[in-house]
Write a structure and sequence with these properties.
19 strands; binds guanosine-5'-diphosphate; binds manganese (II) ion; alpha+beta; disordered N terminus; 4-stranded antiparallel β-sheet
């Protein structure tokens, strides 16, 4: 089972759709990819609307990515403007057009994992809105926290306790209880690591409404939620990680310059340690897994070489389920495509290793007998490349 380090973030509009499934009230609205569509939606909704950039970062309000429009014409104007923005380096490709709410109070409300307590924790604050990080840092007492037993689930009295502690007027307790339940379900049923509403507002016409939503799904549980997997916004995530996922590879980019291609997570860690022991810095963690096909190896090499920091590639393959000749064929196939300019060092042992080495003999690769030898040769290759540059 590959372990991905990258959780899946849902966009605001996706998070709110999910919330709505569990009975949490959300504003009417739809997502648009063009300003014309935004205008159309504003016409359908009638009245004031809010135009909201859909990017997978927080603080959109402060960055100018959330704007109120009084009519469809202004909605179109603002959508044009917001669709042309970049927020924290991310281009805005879609906007959510929602019915605008008249706000009386903004509440923060979330469920997340408390790693230290090893339990889910429900958190709320009457000081909700855009500055919850500041509240957490400066006045943490304004945030109430209640642990939820994952087996028992959220109890009614817990939701009431939270409502009382944040001084929510009594008339809202019943609806707040239903929202708390919905939030708990959204979190637990979908294996989320975060389900957050900020703000949950009290409107001037005295309703509770989730104006913003943020859901993060534990990537390791995604196989249980094919419906959520389809929501994954590949465009918005880093290219190499996405490419790796497509081929079932586990890839994590690091800061060093020696690319490492290894089969097995434990062996990958050992390889990184030995590289460091000889004074090198690994450029990545990459596990091609057991029984890797030539196609997978080629993809892995492409991914490693897509990192411009890489000055040498170290292959450490322990043949077992993964056959040495398959790996060699993969490397050769990849070499036809990518034509790397950096030296490549191979240590290949185990099943069909001899055959693999023979296949690689013509490919101008540096072979090594032991892992220590391979690490030393990789470090030396990088040092030579650096000398060549200066
Ligand atoms: P964030 O900055 O990325 O968290 O985006 P939010 O969706 O939370 O919006 C930021 C702020 O914009 C909210 O805290 C509200 O104060 C304001 N806002 C969002 N939607 C509406 C709305 O429908 N009406 C009004 N009046 N303000 C809104
Ligand atoms: Mn928000």
């Amino acid at each position: 089972m590959p372990v991905h380090e990258d959780p899946m973030k849902l966009h605001e509009y996706q998070s709110k759709q999910l919330f709505s499934k569990y009975g949490i009230p959300i504003p009417k609205g739809r997502v648009a990819a063009t300003a014309g569509e935004a205008r159309q939606i504003a016409e359908e909704l009638g009245g004031r609307v809010v135009i909201k950039s859909q990017v997978l970062v927080g603080g959109r309000g402060k960055a100018g990515g959330v704007k109120l429009a009084k009519d469809p014409q202004e909605a179109e104007q603002l959508a044009t403007q917001i669709l042309g923005m970049e927020i924290k380096g991310l281009p805005v490709r879609k906007v959510l057009v929602d019915e605008a709410a008249a706000i009386d109070q903004e509440i923060y409300f979330a469920v997340t994992n408390d790693r230290a307590a090893r339990k889910p924790v429900m958190m709320a604050s009457s000081a909700g809105g855009i500055d919850i990080e500041e509240v957490a840092a400066k006045t943490p007492e304004k945030i109430v926290k209640i642990h939820v037993d994952p087996l028992l689930g959220l109890r009614d009295y817990q939701a009431r306790d939270i409502a009382a502690t944040i001084d929510l007027p009594r008339e809202y307790w019943k609806d707040f209880g239903a929202i708390a339940n919905g939030l708990w379900k959204a979190y637990s049923i979908n294996d989320a690591t975060l389900a957050e509403i900020n703000p949950l507002v009290i409107t001037k016409d005295k309703r509770l409404l989730a104006l913003d939503g943020k859901v993060i799904i534990d990537d390791n549980a995604l196989f249980r939620h094919s419906d959520l997997g389809e929501m994954r916004d590949i465009d918005e995530e880093a290219g190499a990680e996405t490419e790796a996922r497509k081929y079932g590879l586990t890839y994590i980019k690091l800061e060093g310059d020696i690319g490492c291609m290894v089969n097995g997570a434990g062996l990958a860690m050992t390889t990184m340690d030995i590289v460091k022991l000889f004074g090198g810095e690994p450029a990545n963690f990459l596990d091609i897994g057991g029984g890797a096909s030539a196609e997978k190896v080629a993809a892995a090499l492409r991914i490693i070489l897509s990192d411009p920091n890489v000055k040498a590639v170290l292959f450490n393959i322990f043949g077992g389920i993964t056959r040495g000749d398959e790996v060699a064929r993969g490397i050769l196939a990849a070499l036809q495509e990518v034509k790397p300019k950096v030296p490549m060092i191979v240590r290949l042992v185990g099943t069909n290793a001899e055959e693999g080495r023979k296949l690689l003999a013509d490919a101008k690769m540096i072979t090594a007998e032991t892992l220590a030898d391979a690490a030393k040769k990789s470090v030396a290759a990088v040092a030579a490349a650096m000398r060549g540059q200066s």
